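Q: My labmate handed me this sequence with no annotations at all. I'd like to see what the chain might look like in three dimensions before we decide whether it's worth expressing. Could you predict it?
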Amino acid sequence: MVEMTTTIQNAQGIHCRPSAVIVKYVADYDGGITVNGEKGETALRSILELMTLELFLGSQVTVRVNGPDEETFCKDVVALFETHFEFPPRSETDR
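A: Here is what I predict for the chain of 95 residues:
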């Protein structure tokens, strides 16, 4: 098992769209992944569960990975939590 702690860097925190990116990235991983924040812990398999951790700018999160190539995969997941996500603004037609 590999464990790494990081700080959320995205100005709006880990809201719906960053959560979707993170959960999609880990979806096919064959090992176990957990994320622990101040508000609890999740297995990182659900966007909603990740959002319930209420990870805002400056929040600390601990990522635990147990499985194949766990150190590299853990670093990749930590990098996602450190990403400054910049999504294009939604147009009126997207609503």
